[in-house]
Amino acid sequence: MSVTTPRDATGPWASNAPIRPPAIASQPRHRRAARGFTLVEVLVAILLLSVGLLGVAGLQISGLRYHQGAYMRGQATSLLYDMTDRMRINPQGVGAGSYNAITINTTTSGWQSSLPADPDCAANNCTPANQAALDIRQWGLALGQLPRAVGTVTRNGLIFTLTITWQDLDSNAEAPANQTASLNVQINNPPPP
Q: How many CB atoms lie within 10 A of CB 76?
């Protein structure tokens, strides 16, 4: 049995020519471009990366500013509800008018001295008026946590309007802006004893 090889084959592909190794490609006449990056490309990439990082840093700063503003609004709202709860717990003080007109201004120096004295309700029995004085003092001290805050409570009939104004940087302008949170509540007078 004989084995045929492509050289021995018959047909259109048959050839008696010797098999030659493939030709090696000759070098082109012009020099090929070097592979890799040039210094200009690297500098452009660094420039684009730095612009992107500056944008991310700006977004981070804006995010922190807005977060701080949201925190301040949350604190002001919490303080409004705190004073409302204090008034509801002391209906006799509300009936006596102890909460009718309150203004606490933390923008002036020595503002803590304008707060009512501490009646020391932990050691003494407090009257409704003493409890109201303690409530006003504690609310005023808590207002001091907000920057340049002014807190007011006013009464019109059975409706109390509680307002807190403070300074906030939560705006596109670089100058501080005043923010205000307000709450209207109805607190009924206590029934007569």
A: 24
- CA-CA distance, 139 to 173, in Å (whole number)? 31
In a domain, 193, yes or no: no
Phi and psi angles of residue 59, each rounded to the nearest 5 degrees, phi first: -65, -40
Q: Residue 183: its pLDDT value, please?
A: 95
Residue 3 lies in a domain: no
- Predicted pLDDT of residue 4: 53
| Helix locations, the chain, DSSP H | 39-89, 91-95, 128-143
Predicted pLDDT of residue 38? 85
Looking at residue 6, its pLDDT comes to 54
Residue 147 to residues 35, 50, 72, 108, 111, Cα–Cα distance (Å) = 60, 35, 9, 12, 13
Domain assignment present for 103 = yes
Binned average pLDDT, 10 residues per bin, the chain of 193 residues: 55 61 60 72 91 90 79 93 95 92 90 89 89 95 92 94 86 70 89 65
Return the H-helix or E-strand segment holding 182. Answer: strand 177-186
| Domain-embedded: residue 112 | yes
Half-sphere exposure at residue 52, Cβ-oriented, CA atoms within 13 angstroms:
6
Residue-range definition of the domain harbouring residue 91: 69-186
Which tokens in the block code for residue 185? 């509540």
What total of structural domains would you count in the chain?
Answer: 1
